[in-house]
Amino acid sequence: MLRLEGVSTYYGPIQALKEITLEVEEGAVVAVLGANGAGKTTLMNTISGLLHPRGGQITFEGRRIDRLPTERIVRLGIIQVPEGRQLFPDLTVAENLRMGAFVQRDHRGIKESLERVFAHFPVLMDRRGQLAGTLSGGEQQMLAIARALMARPRLLLLDEPSLGLSPILVRELFTILRTLNGEGTTMVLAEQNSHMALTIARYGYILETGRIGLAGKSEELRANKKVKQLYLGIRERSPMTPRGGGESGGA
Amino acid sequence: MLAQLIVSGLASGSLYAMMAIGLILVYKTTHILNFGYGDMTMFSTFIAYMLLTWYKLPFAVAFLGAIACGFLLGIIVDRGFLKMAKNAPITSLFIATLGIGMILEAVAGWVWGYDTKPFPYIIKGPPVLLGSVVIRRHDLLVFAIAAAIALLLFAMFKFTDIGIAMRATAQNKRAARLMGINVGQIATWSWAIGVGLGALAGVLIAPIVFLDLTRMILVMIKAVAAAVLGGFTSLPGAIVGGLLLGVMENLTIYMPAALAPLKTTFVFLLIIIVLAIRPQGLLGESVGRRV
Q1: Which of A102, A106, A158 to mutate to test the interface with B (most CBs of B within 10 A)?
Q2: In 3-state terms, what secondary structure has residue B146?
Q3: pLDDT, tens digit, for every residue of A69-107?
Q4: CATH 2.40.300 fits B2-277, yes or no
Q5: What residue segments make up the domains of chain B, in order of their start?
Q6: Contact state of B180 with A88 under an 8 Å Cβ cutoff
Q7: ipTM summary value
Q8: What's this model's pTM, rounded to 2 decimal places?
Q9: Calpha distance B103→B28 (Å, rounded)
Q10: How far is A103 from chain B (nearest CA, A)?
């Protein structure tokens, strides 16, 4: 469905993505893992057309998209849920959702999407007249996803959706993502929470300073010794005493 | 007497408010302060003047001509000039708008001449008496148009896709693009509506202040003052700021005669006082809230 071949993206003179080759099959969840600064957000923004690659090409359903402006890419059905939610704080919940459906022209379709979104996120229905900026962190993340669903995505790009959520909300979030995938939405999921991401992804890529360090099926990645140590926080037969917790720390 | 001064102050105040809204609209979606606004307003008003006095066309045509001219000027400024220099720093773009204004001024002087011209009133007839207050018919027309514009804008920003998209773009440009909103188009719309509002206000204020090349710049400065007074990002704030400014300006008549030459500067003193007490303006958001 989506193919990246040798994609390189720069911020001025600095190369942030180095010849990324990646494939997403229709119906799959693909995880993109990596530490802070590895290039996950750059990758998402390159697919969405907010950044244009200097080398390589991106095709979506056989069509080249790496030169298209974001608004055209959105119309093709590639919808991003950006890192840090990026809601419109002074618009109401209902207005945020309406903006999610901005490219939709079919009024009945919009109404159906709204009903579907409220079925998934009943709390948004209760708060639809409230300003988005006044929602709690968890509700804001739900609204960010709901807003993307209003665009009827064929491919959903999720950039760190679990960031800043409590463990209970993270679990709830992943349940919802699994349901959405079950309903046929293809997803690319960039996550620092590698453990959760690999439980719902079919395939995973690990980004290391802008290049793909490792790629494979989720089970393979989970069994990989290096992945276990670096990304899942599991130390096997370590001579050091295991430190409690596990998840990689850091801001 | 007081009621009289307040009513006529409200009339000119609603014109300042209308212009202030045009200024804020552009500023909110593009972060550009339109320094050429006064000249764009002057140019559009001259179009109305030409249609009226050279071609003897009816007022309605002149009116629509001026608004269409403002609308088009907005589109040309955005598409023709600013898009070309889109990677320039924002302060350079301020100066670019000033430059466009000076070009318009030169062209206007060349076409319409440098002398001050009287601009006819749209409706004539004796003033209307409301109790002891005498209201010019022209002021009634101004009130009606200003109220209609305010309602129209409110409906647009609250109920239409394009209006909500303008607010969304003002709040988070990147997120707006991710919704498939063409933020370049939104900027063009803001410019068109913004300069169009100036043209509308220009035609309504010209009978009172007359028309020449630079007079509208003074009106623009008052619109800037109204915008600042209201908080610069809030449209209701611009309305309150404009009305307040218009009334205050009229009330300076009570100042001692010795201070009369300082009358026009008084309103600016007022603005400094307001900003010292409330840095965010009367209806503005508290400073530092925006990320």
Answers
A1: A102
A2: helix
A3: 999 999 999 999 999 999 999 999 999 999 999 999 899
A4: no
A5: 2-277
A6: no
A7: 0.89
A8: 0.88
A9: 25
A10: 6
